[in-house]
């Protein structure tokens, strides 16, 4: 009989990073850096465990804990668990059940999970049969395969996205638009926070993103003369990265600076050995314009079944 167990004692940063890289299409929320940033900013306590099958490590899971009303402990798994060895779908569900055992309602604890599983009847049935109940709708994103040649990535883009990229590239060639990597993300994070609060966008704060390990971020900005007109920030985790921030001024939007920033970001991520890019969610209800822009990049659509308790 196959048994799934959790090892809460062994995780350390070096081994976690190594195993996360072996997960391939890893998620930023399961990275060591993300957990540490949450703790550093006082937003959550973090618990980490390796998942073992018959005594052999096969996966990992990071849980974020919050205390409500001074009594109730809520544990959250975002886009996990992840696996660096091949396992059955039933093993993935068994791992989630093992984590849930650490959060019994009788002890004023509860666990919510947005599992990194493909949405569909088979997965939904497995979750339901394991006693999990859906509380939030499915989550949609898209993965871009950065192991492809740049020519193939560009060919898969929507035509209008490519046309806008070409026009922005022409401006860069002419010297009227410049794109460069910046080491200090704080100016971009300030602009991002201002815009996020203005439109009521529910997303990680600039304070949290600023607390990430420097080497896990890639920040690019576009300028016209001395004026910053657009910026992007990617979070790197193992062999994958997430497109997390995109900010554009009216001037930047008018000349499609963001298209060029994303393209330069893709080139840089490839050079750093990143093989997969998560486009950071496609919310067609609350942010249809952003979702349309991201969809223009191309990629493989991927829908998670939603949040369960």
UniProtKB/TrEMBL annotation:
Domain BioF2-like acetyltransferase, first and last residues per copy: 157-289
Taxon lineage: Bacteria, Pseudomonadati, Pseudomonadota, Alphaproteobacteria, Rhodospirillales
Source organism (scientific name): Pacificispira spongiicola
Family membership: Belongs to the FemABX family.
InterPro entries hit by this protein: Acyl_CoA_acyltransferase, BioF2-like_GNAT_dom, FEMABX, PG_Glycine_Bridge_Synth
Keyword hit for Cell wall biogenesis/degradation: yes
Residue intervals passing through the bilayer: none
SUPFAM superfamilies linked: Acyl-CoA N-acyltransferases (Nat)
Name of this chain's protein: GNAT family N-acetyltransferase
């Amino acid at each position: 009989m196959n048994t799934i167990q959790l090892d809460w004692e062994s995780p350390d940063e070096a081994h976690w990073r190594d195993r996360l890289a072996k997960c391939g299409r890893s998620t930023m929320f399961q990275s060591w850096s993300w957990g540490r940033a949450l703790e550093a900013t006082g937003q959550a306590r973090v618990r980490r465990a390796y998942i073992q099958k018959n005594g052999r490590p096969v996966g990992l899971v990071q849980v974020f804990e919050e205390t409500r009303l001074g009594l109730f402990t809520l544990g959250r798994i975002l886009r996990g668990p992840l696996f660096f060895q091949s396992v059955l779908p039933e093993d993935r569900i068994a791992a989630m059940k093992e984590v849930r055992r650490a959060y019994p309602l009788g002890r004023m604890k509860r666990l919510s999970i947005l599992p990194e599983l493909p949405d569909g009847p088979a997965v939904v049935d497995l979750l339901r049969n394991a006693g999990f109940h859906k509380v939030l709708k499915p989550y949609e994103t898209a993965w871009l395969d950065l192991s492809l040649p740049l020519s193939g990535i560009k060919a898969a883009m929507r035509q209008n996205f490519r046309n806008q990229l070409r026009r922005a590239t022409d401006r860069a060639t002419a010297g009227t638009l410049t794109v460069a990597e910046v080491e200090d993300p704080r100016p971009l994070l300030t602009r991002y926070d201002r815009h996020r609060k203005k439109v009521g966008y529910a997303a990680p704060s600039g304070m949290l993103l600023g607390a990430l390990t420097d080497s896990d971020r890639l920040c690019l900005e576009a300028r016209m003369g001395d004026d910053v007109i657009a910026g992007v920030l990617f979070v790197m985790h193992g062999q994958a990265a997430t497109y997390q921030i995109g900010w554009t001024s009216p001037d930047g939007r008018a000349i499609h600076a963001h298209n060029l920033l994303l393209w330069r970001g893709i080139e840089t991520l490839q050079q750093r050995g990143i093989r997969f890019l998560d486009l950071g969610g496609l919310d067609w209800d609350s942010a249809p314009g952003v979702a349309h822009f991201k969809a223009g990049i191309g990629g493989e659509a991927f829908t998670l079944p939603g949040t369960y308790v």
